[in-house]
Structure of Metallo-beta-lactamase domain-containing protein:
Amino acid sequence: MSEDDMKISVLASGSTGNVTYIETAQHKMLVDAGLSGKKIEGLMNSIGRDLADVDSLFLTHEHTDHIRGAGVLARRYNLDVYANQGTWQAIAPKIGPIPEEKKNVFEVGKTKSFGDIDVESFAVSHDAAEPQFYEFHHNGKTFVILTDTGYVSERVEGQIENADAYLFEVNHDVEMLRMGGYPWPLKQRILSDHGHLSNEDGANALMDVMGYHTKKIFLGHLSLHNNMKELAHLTVASMMKNKDLAVGHDFQLFDTDHGKATKLTAI
């Protein structure tokens, strides 16, 4: 890894909490803060980084597994926090006061420049007030985060295609979900167009968007009760190999974890 690289670590990803760390020479950023402040501090330390060096926090939507530690971190570390207007309104009663000068509106479909990194937002289909995710551009490389969506539209596919790296949702195995103990209305919500991508849906969407630049794919937001890391990985890898995609050769598939950070990786 060099000073000029964009580096990332998926600190936690899953139904119990989500945090991703991104750094360049000039900036250190978090996307979501869905664990306690203490837990996020520990995960940062595990990759040799300090939360005190983080300058920005980007929020995707108001669900607890994405904002649990947001207020605490924003206040303790004086972070600039970015979210769209709908998300700000939805999280206001949940995260406590944040200084007005630290609250930044980042509307959907916009791009903001932060020195050596550009951040672009895009809307997704999820049962939240105004859910959006982000792609990060640095030195000709692009990293896309896309979880918490019931499907991937052609518009989104066109926006995120051929990125160098993805953190992509493979939330559930459909049969595990159908046969599991969740109430039927919750199962319907997860399976709907405003829910989450299954292993098969995630694999198909990935194959639609990945291109010759794509070298690293992180499989994320696995359900604690309706999926298994090995199953998600095997499903995606098998479907890709059936389409003659060179898994493990032209690109790598990485697993993520509910409570263990991935290795800090250059994009």
